[in-house]
Amino acid sequence: MITDLKHYAKKFEGVLPKNICEKSVNEMNDISFQQHKFYNPKNNTLGARSGSKELSISWGNISTKPFINNKIKETVIDYLTYIDVPWFTQFQGASDVRFNKYSEDTQMAMHTDHIHSLFDGQRKGIPILSVLGVLNENYEGGEFIMFKDHEVKFNTGDILVFPSLFLYPHGVKPVTKGTRYSYISWIW
């Protein structure tokens, strides 16, 4: 068994074709976004982290969303083959994709994906995998950081899969120029 945590954060290159990514970005002008907020379990509230100008998020629909959702599931199957762990060979489902929009000076504070709000009573627990993809490269800043100091570099169409638990802190540094578009889905 491999004990290096970085091994279980696997990037798959060029999963989404560039034309799908470009079409997705263009269509995001027609959906509404709201500021991202973190859940605070101590007082059961949502809010921004202190000193953090957070990204905008949307669960909106665009024409490429079904294609992206399908590619996420295919990539998770590839991930399960990659990690080659006999006790983890399948998953139950995937959340609908959520789109992330990072305008200039916005970021995502370091966090982990212990997200309880995805589970409404019919599904119970927390996600087991996070699946993140980037849709464009025409921005500056916005580096994706894991483990405080490990940068994962993305090209358009790349997908990163990693465990959704406390051992995998991650965040996005502030965008300094342009707009960064990405998406996320969680696997249970």
Describe this protein's structure.
- With 188 residues, the protein is α+β, with helices and mostly antiparallel strands.
- It has one domain: Jelly Rolls (Sandwich), CATH 2.60.120.620.
- It has two helices and 15 strands.
- The chain has helices at residues 18-27, 65-83, and strands at 10-12, 34-35, 38-40, 45-47, 56-58, 98-102, 108-111, 129-134, 139-141, 144-146, 150-152, 159-163, 170-172, 175-178, 180-187.
- The strands form four sheets. It has a seven-stranded antiparallel sheet, covered by helices on one side. Strands 7-13-10-11 form a four-stranded antiparallel sheet, with no helix packed on it. Strands 3-4 form a two-stranded antiparallel sheet.
- The longest helix has 19 residues, at 65-83.
- The protein starts with 9 loop residues before the first strand and ends with a strand.
Feature tags:
single chain, 188 residues, alpha+beta, Jelly Rolls, 7-stranded antiparallel β-sheet, 4-stranded antiparallel β-sheet
- Approximate strand percentage: 25-35%
Distance between the termini: 22 Å
Q: What overall form do the CA principal axes indicate?
A: globular
Q: Output the helix-strand order.
A: EHEEEEHEEEEEEEEEE
Count of runs of 4 or more consecutive helical residues? 2
Low-confidence stretches are none
How confident overall, as mean pLDDT? 91
Secondary-structure blueprint:
Layout lengths: L9 E3 L5 H10 L6 E2 L2 E3 L4 E3 L8 E3 L6 H19 L14 E5 L5 E4 L17 E6 L4 E3 L2 E3 L3 E3 L6 E5 L6 E3 L2 E4 L1 E8 L1
Antiparallel strand pairs: 1-12, 2-5, 3-4, 5-6, 6-15, 7-13, 8-12, 8-15, 9-14, 10-11, 10-13
